[in-house]
Amino acid sequence: AAKPGTAGLAFTPIAPVDRTVDAFTVPVGYRWQPIIRWGDPLFSSVPAFDFDHQTAQAQAGQFGYNNDYLDIIADPSGKTGVLVTNHEYVNPDLMFTATTDPEERRRRGEIYKAAMGMAVVEVKRRRVGDPWEYVVDGERSRRVTVESTFELTGPAAGSDLVKTAADPEGRWVKGTLGNCAGGTTPWGTVLSGEENFNGYFAWAADTAEQQRYSAGSTTSTETGWEQYDERFDAHSPGYVNEPNRFGYIVEIDPSDPTSTPKKHTAMGRFKHEGANVTIAEDGRVVAYMGDDERNDYLYKFVSKGRYTAATSTGARRKNMRLLSEGDLFVARFSGNSPAAEITGTGAMPSDGAFDGTGEWIALTRGGESVVPGMTTEQVLVYTRLAADLMGATKMDRPEDVEPNPHTGKVYLALTNNSRRTVATLDEVNPITGNRYGHVVELTETSGQAGETFGWSILLLCGDPAVTDYTYFAGFPKELVSPISCPDNVAFDSEGNLWISTDGAPSTIGYNDGLFRVPLEGDQRGNVQQFLSVPREAETCGPVIHDREGLVFVAVQHPGENGAVGAQTSYFPDYVASHSGDKVAAPRPSVVQVWKG
Ligand code: FEO
Ligand code: CA
Ligand code: CA
Ligand code: CA
């Protein structure tokens, strides 16, 4: 008999929720509650959230803004653990009323710095299986912000490309930016992708290298940091290289609040969505990574060293060096159907599938550049140019990419691509103007660390009632939940795929949500919506603890199109938090959902 899904999370799919509805919606029989919200204090020495009296000092000890990647890592007892999240960016219009006063803008700029980065927050519960609550003064709790120190590792650390006036060694970076998705490693650390870092700099686009990471020069930013903090002015002679110190995979050890987080240059520099790690047959570590830009690439990193499956301090220390040394590959996809059959309309090729083979093209081997005309340091700092030279396949915005722990197959969310033209169609990106995105299933054919793969399109997203080209792995399309703009992926204990979306409101008109997709048996491709986030929010960082009947999501940018005084969302409290006009500011929050 078909398995409709994991017993701990049996549910009847919710109906899609109209984009104007400001509600968090769960299946019948389920409840939801925030664990922690923007501004909640991590420590008793820090003031409670006070919308009208925000300070940078308070914010640096409070939960940050726009939580994205999320994991809930339980200790062996199951009753304590840590919540780890990214704080990708800020929404100034929802944090403050408008101002033009330069002094106040500077004061707020420091609050923005403190509201971004990452958080590690201790959590506890009475019994295994209960929902979690966060702990004030947790021993492992910490905030990492745009003012924290990071260590560069790998071949580009210490190179001339990453030296600045403040860091002549090129090894110590202040801050992390645009922390989007991520992954938790088998050795218990958390990886975080620095994605849209370019927008925080007054950007110099004088060289081809600079242009490849942000097309035009700019003189101002939304946060205004460049006005008073020289490191954000890339036109300044001492800080031309500052942007070269962002766009990496960050690794943080949530068990040690005094540890210095690392930025791994061996894993390349681009708009890193995130990184998900698995262990190859021979013990090497394999990380899959997307570059979230229209027409950019899918990457894979293979470590030189081998994973040690022990929990001793020595083993842990050794594992924490694995991502500093290894080889970087980029994906080239080939289709197996005649090009003439790829029409851009989703019409299936004559072999009945969008599928084919592919290869991982090396950018470094033995840790050294194999790209003609580029040094190792250049390959790792200007990775996009290296991939351009090697003929990688331009994809429809690679977001989260994650191996299924049950099968080793890799799932790649391609969120959308308005720049996919008729002239640039191929079998793996077969939809013109790809508005709703798609999901690719990739099967390694020469081992997890190998250099060949097979692939096929699992889902062509959209609302089947409106768009006729949607495809759900052959499952009857009249039975599935509409889905648009796949972004983050996760797996439950039975190997079902879970997908959270970003951008559905403006494409299919429904609020973003979280969806379960069985991958095996006769339910394969049956997209079922589990939850829906409030108006203008994005569903991020899904964590599926189905054996405990618990699901966690980070609700990012609720009410993003509103402003203070003209709010469009009042999530999650739906009460006044702003004494001035008695209207609540929406607060990005981590939410847990359980049966009850
Ligand atoms: Fe921050 Fe690619 O989403
Ligand atoms: Ca085919
Ligand atoms: Ca994302
Ligand atoms: Ca996103």
Biggest sheet architecture = 10 strands, antiparallel
Bin the strand percentage: 25-35%
The radius of gyration over CA amounts to: 23 Å
What value does the average pLDDT take?
96
Class from secondary-structure proportions: mainly beta
Protein name: DUF839 domain-containing protein
InterPro entries: PhoX (IPR008557), TAT_signal (IPR006311)
List the helices and strands and how they pair.
Elements: E1 30-37, H1 56-59, E2 67-74, E3 80-87, H2 92-95, H3 102-115, E4 117-124, E5 133-134, E6 142-144, E7 149-153, E8 172-174, E9 179-184, E10 190-194, H4 208-213, E11 249-252, E12 262-264, E13 276-279, E14 284-290, E15 294-296, E16 298-306, H5 313-319, E17 326-335, E18 355-362, E19 364-365, E20 368-369, H6 376-381, H7 383-389, E21 395-396, E22 398-403, E23 410-414, E24 438-444, E25 452-460, E26 471-472, E27 486-491, E28 497-501, H8 504-507, E29 513-517, E30 528-532, E31 538-545, E32 550-556, E33 589-595
The protein binds MU-OXO-diiron and calcium ion (CA) (3 copies).
Protein name: DUF839 domain-containing protein
Pfam family, one: PhoX
InterPro entries: PhoX, TAT_signal
What's a quick, concise take on this entry?
The protein has 596 residues and is mostly beta strands. Helices cover 9% and strands 31% of the residues. The chain has a domain at 198-234.
